[in-house]
Amino acid sequence: xxxxxxxxxMAWMGQSLAAGINITGxxxxxxxxxxxxxxxxxxKATGVRINxxxxxxxxxxxxxxxxxxxxxxxxxxxxATELGKSGLVQWPMIIGGVVPVVNLxxxxxxxxxxxxxxxxxxxxxxxxxxxxxxxxxxxPGLALPKQDIxxxxxxxxxxxxxxxxxxxxxxxxxxxxxVGVGKAVKWPVGIGAKGNEGVSSMAGRVPGxxxxxxxxxxxxxxxxxxxxxxxxxxVEPQLEGFQAAAANADWRAASGYSVILSxxxxxxxxxxxxxxxxxxxxxxxxxxxxxxxLEFFDWCFxxxxxxxxxxxYVALPDKVVDxxxxxxxxxxxxxxxxxxxxxxGE
Amino acid sequence: MNTREAAALGELKKxxxxxxxxxxxxxxxxxxxxxxxxxxxxxxxxxxxxxGSWQTLAKHGVGFLFHNEWDxxxxxxxxxxxxxxxxxxxxxxxVIGVPLSFGIAMFITELSPRILSRPLMVAIELLAGIPSIIxxxxxxxxxxxxxxxxVQPLLxxxxxxxxxxxxxxxxxxxxxxxxTAGLILALMITPFISAVMCEVFDVVxxxxxxxxxxxxxxxxxxxxxxxxxxxxxxxxxxxxxxxGRALGETMAVTLVIGNAFLISPSLFSPGNTISSVLANxxxxxxxxxxxxxxxxxxxxxxxxxxxxxxxARLLLWRLRRKAAG
Lengths: 346, 325
Known about the structure:
The structure holds 2 protein chains of 2 kinds. Chain A is an alpha/beta fold. Chain A has 13 helices and 11 strands.
């Protein structure tokens, strides 16, 4: 309730400041840093103010269904039936990566290899010690210590958890059966910490810890983890790997772009890549605001890639962006039935 | 009283009723409205909590309270672990916070030189005013690492070896957990309890204390035999205020409790409380049963608060009766 109150307050303040056009969005926390950065740069360039409140994907979906915001944002894409039922259009906006981090200073910078199945067994509590045979087999040259593994996970519901558990479920039937996929799950073992920063600081402090965080929070962690992808190659978490996963995904086949970038094909693809989505009503109550929001998103696709990279996110591949622009043209209508958006040059 | 006098009194009453002018009546209505608002808000909150949690209560029934499973994916919800965590952390906080506050208040009101008692009072008020998130961050970044590295291993190797009580100090020293949360809570409620204690100790008539000293009582005897019996009601009130804060504290606890749905005898193990679960999960709870279960947790916390309040009232009432009889 307090969050909602704060949000309404912000929305109200935004309205009075933007003088006329009021573009408010709410939702996922995972892409918040990049949306906030884009909004600031866009305001500088055009004077149009975007208010994005990172209240969580669940909140974003609720708000856009109630039409209290111009756009909603979610890490967990809605499926086609739900989109149709609530009259929403959905597209991916930004790509990031979820990365496992490990606190084992004994390895002195050596790289630790993991597979999805081993990761799932660690988070299920089946692999309890760092010198487990399964880990030794993957890392023959490494002097793995005889030390207990302390699992650290998110305590708050989050898109990061959704993407992480989604990946584990693709890798391990036992995980799918015992835990499943969700933004908050029944963790078999471990301690919970709030937010990416909470998880990374907890993992940094508890010796022998393993956790999962957004890529930006894993940049300085040692040792570096490499994870086996669908093609059998061990890849390190890097922006190029996220890009490869996004480029190799089959966006066209999924309605509402509800592609989850976990475990995509391609030798360079990072297996825990994640997209974050935007939701807007097909027949917006305030067409002017919707149009202004689409102009903002278009600007982000054209000008926002560098800013995103700075914050360790990856922009969508150009061919996907073209598809999205077409979707906008085909889907959004003002009250007179005219398209709200027409790509440039048409 | 003769008839003349009675008649005069009646006249006087009538006159005073008549003289109650319109301002007075308006004033009465306004204050009545203020008082009614409190009741209305309370009722509305209770009603919306019950309505919000109806779906879960209909599905799980009373079992919601006694079953330890929290699985948002399969829609199985039980509140036992958060209830357990809420009670255990609050008990730790009270067990440590109350004697600490008593010592502080005793020193300030009885022993400290005037020049020191003023700054001490101000310091307590300042501590009471620090937002809970600051306590939480300090707990997570400063207290928990020190506690995990130095104090927990020590407790594990000493008290942990004892039969019975040793069960409370088992498991790896991670720094965070139920005990850490309880200790941070104790720190947070101490300023409140000690401020109340100072105030009530101050109103004990000087003559009483001085006469006790005059017959040769020690400071301790004066405190325990004179001051405490005189101020019982206020003391209970102060402790209840602290307990209320401990039960409902959210941010600080969320940061240091380890957030696991777990019921373990060991105080080192991670756990959670009702308010920490709400803070963690409310924003992302998207399906109805999940939201409803979180509302039901809110209702449980509300009921715990009511029970505590009623228990405090009963205790006060009994004390008062004893004092009167």
